[in-house]
Amino acid sequence: MAVSTFKRGLKLPARKQATEGKSVELVPVLPQVVIPINQHFGAPNEPLVNVGDHVTRGQKIADAVTPGPLTAPVHASVSGTVKKIEPRLQQNNTGGICIIIETDPAEAAGQAFMPPLDPWTCTREEALERIRDAGIIGMGGAGFPVHVKLNPPPGKTVDLIIADGAECEPYLTTDEAVMTEKPHLLITGLAIVMRITGVRRAIIGMEDNKASLAPMIEREIRLNDSGLDISIGLCRTRYPQGGEKMLIKALADREVPSGGLPMDVHCIVQNVGTLVAIAEAFTLGKPLIDRDLTVSGGACKTPKNIRAPIGAMITDFPPEFMDIDEGNLKKIIFGGPMMGNAVASAAIPIQKNTSGIILMTKAETLADAEGTCIRCGRCIRNCSCRLSPVSMNIALESGDMDEAIRAGLPDCIECGSCSYVCPARIKLVQRFRVGKQRLQAVKAQAAGKREAAAPGKV
């Protein structure tokens, strides 16, 4: 099988050996869950329950007041009693409203799932509604509502679905575990997406360090017997191979234009875990209330792949299940070490898009002081999007947003490659994230001025 790739990027230490090949373990019943009501990219939700209410696992507990296209509901991941509704610190290091549910162990088996829905006989509109009702968002990154992604606007055509199983971040092995343990649900979810979009061709993309999974998945494709063109595409193990733009370039030789989206080159990319969640929403009526993730790092004495209810906190895990070396714990990252967020505490809830929790020792972290840029160009040579990080940084430092845009700020995928190779240890990704926030603020301010100046406005 041929191996494809993209230009530039990095060869990183994998650091997956602690959990690769390990089965997913179920988290024991926890005393509580802390469920953020907003876990998606889009309009905010409001609680649908009150303090003191009894809720059942699978019950909708938050949704937008007026459900719009960029909304996704949130469901109870355990059965129990709503004890508090209050702001809590979340994995993006900001406070957000959470619903705290005290678990009722006597009702651990209770559930309020939706009735199963036949994806092959229901209408396209019913299928999209089911995905939204299940609260399914992209589980590999920004948390974009999937029902929106599968419904391209007029004028946008799609002819290829790519299942993203690359999992290029160090430490993380949950996508590998999903493909190993649930290949039937992966193929079912992929076939459902293909029916909704009307696409006849799909590629399951994975890095060649997972080539051993190919025969098993190919067997499942044959057993599915859907008549669809589903194949496996191996990519070179290179970071950030799991990015949408990189996978599309490697597997389809198409380049997403500046400021564009995958559908601009007739592609839709979905994480393999998202596809499994889609299959479960139809076959079981199950909302997205559980999350497979990797807990690893040098300060984790029991690294493993786990399945946890949304809202679980590792500080509530029993020590016999998760043993943390508190004395050597120096840094906690939610997500992967390259694109994840460093957080101040382990008492932060797992969300729908939490792919991992990395508990690092001092030896695994880098805390060098920033130096002065020496214009070496390493960041340019290794940028997978072929941008000029050094120029972006200079523009942001001088407050020239127009020049930052010309240098490529809006197209930066924040993969961290530039920061990783920078000999001056400049925190480039963090600056670009702040720069994007400034850019959004400038755009919002300009939009406000245009609205105020519109005819009929006072």
What's the CATH class label of the domain at 3-21 and 115-283? Alpha Beta
Q: What fraction strand?
A: 15-25%
The shape is: globular
Portion of residues within helices: 25-40%
Please give a structural write-up.
The mean pLDDT is 93. The chain contains 12 helices and 18 strands. The N and C termini lie far apart (66 Å). With 458 residues, the protein is an alpha/beta fold. The strands form 4 sheets. Strands 2-15-14-18-16-17 form a 6-stranded mixed β-sheet. Strands 1-12-11-10-13 form a 5-stranded parallel β-sheet, with helices on both faces. Among the domains are: 188 residues, NADH-ubiquinone oxidoreductase 51kDa subunit (Rossmann fold, 3-Layer(aba) Sandwich); 72 residues, no CATH class.
